[in-house]
Write a structure and sequence with these properties.
Layout: H1 9-12, H2 17-27, E1 32-40, E2 43-48, E3 51-55, H3 59-63, E4 73-77, E5 82-86, E6 92-96, E7 104-109, E8 113-119, H4 126-139, E9 142-148, H5 157-167, E10 173-175, E11 196-201, H6 207-215, E12 240-243, E13 249-252, H7 266-269, H8 271-277, H9 294-301, H10 306-346
Parallel strand pairs: 8-9, 8-11, 9-10, 11-13
Antiparallel strand pairs: 1-2, 1-4, 2-3, 4-5, 6-7, 12-13
């Protein structure tokens, strides 16, 4: 990563008075602020006032599970070359760690905007978009739906209509083509005031191509599009903060094959269903055989689609299962602490 390092680089990275106030306690220890640009195994690439630095995290951060993520602001001991602390996050985009571990994986920290990228026509999936929206709303970042490769469809309006139904009009939508350049400028205002935006989506939807257009050079490698489905092959292998020449920061991410939610704002994402459920005769309606069920009535008259309802129920169950696992783990931990305390008393 190359960028002319100046005395205002911290502000180009998103530093402001609130971050300065949060960092004040570390000044006495002669630590300096920096932002995590890339996470490696055992070390982090950092950007700060004095340039670029690769540094490991202090062992106590690893022991406490407080390792920084890409986008985090950290306090660095430049003499020892060690990350000593992570500043409290304003936003965090998280998912459940892949495979079977019930652990949180922070994909991006301190992000202002989450670009949810889907490519037309073959990658578009409203159910997947609901997952991304739920994660983005929970994080505190502003979700923006980005439809790429509009040059591959004759009419983009039907796709925009389906997005509007999915987002309930609460998230901006940009439909663009990096090939023709159509509507690319519609993305740039989201980076005003040195905001940070993350690109999230499946492999091959054009995230790296979009970054290259925003940067104005082929900074990230892209690969040819497959003939069968017009999807590019995945090239991004790690998350990375990239400063844009016109201001702002973009965080490119590898394509996600799966997105299991860690936590989610289903009320914001499915506000229409919440409103319909409020019409049920009984407050504890399970939307099964109860009389006066607003949800069943909406499904019957088509006001609520069966696919959207099924998606909502599936995400609810997924989140509930994860929370139950965490609750069991916490109870086991408390039991072990109590047992150790009792054994000490009996000695």
């Amino acid at each position: 990563m190359t960028f002319p390092l100046t005395e205002t680089l911290l502000h180009r990275l998103g530093w402001d008075d609130d971050w300065e106030a949060a960092f004040e306690p570390y000044r006495a220890d002669e630590l300096v602020p920096a932002r995590v640009a890339v996470q490696h195994r055992g070390a982090f690439d950092l950007l700060g006032e004095e340039g670029e630095l690769r540094a490991p995290a202090a062992p106590r951060l690893a022991r406490g599970g407080d390792l920084p993520a890409v986008g985090d602001w950290v306090a660095v001991d430049r003499t020892r070359g060690v990350v000593e602390a992570v500043l409290p996050r304003r936003t965090a985009l998280s998912r459940k760690e892949v495979w079977h571990a019930v652990r949180e994986q922070v994909l991006a920290a301190n992000v202002d905007v989450a670009f949810l990228v889907q490519a037309l026509p073959h990658d578009f999936n409203a159910r997947r978009l609901e997952r991304y929206l739920a994660m983005a709303w929970e994080s505190g970042a502003q979700p923006v739906v980005v439809l790429t490769k509009t040059d591959l469809v004759e009419d983009v309006e039907p796709w925009l209509a389906e997005v509007e139904t999915t987002t309930l009009g609460a998230a901006p939508v940009v439909a663009l083509s990096a090939i023709t350049g159509e509507h690319l400028d519609d993305v740039r205002p989201f980076f005003d005031d040195n905001k940070t935006a993350v690109l999230l989506g499946s492999s091959g939807v054009g995230k790296s191509t979009l970054v290259n257009v925003l940067v104005g050079e082929d900074l990230l490698a892209t690969r040819e599009v497959r003939e069968g489905d017009h999807r590019g092959r995945h090239t991004t292998v790690h998350r990375e903060l990239i400063l844009l020449p016109g201001g702002g920061i973009v965080l490119d991410t590898p394509g996600m094959r799966e997105l299991q939610l860690w936590d989610a704002d289903l009320e914001q994402t499915f506000g229409d269903i919440e409103e319909i459920a409020a019409r049920c005769r009984f407050n504890d309606c399970a939307h099964g055989r109860e009389p006066g069920c607003g949800v069943r009535a909406a499904l019957a008259d088509g006001t609520l689609s069966h696919d959207r309802w099924t998606s909502y129920v599936k995400l609810q169950r997924e989140l509930e299962a994860r929370r139950n696992v965490l609750l069991r783990k916490e109870r086991v931990r408390e039991y072990k602490i109590h047992s150790r305390a009792m054994r000490k008393k009996s000695r």
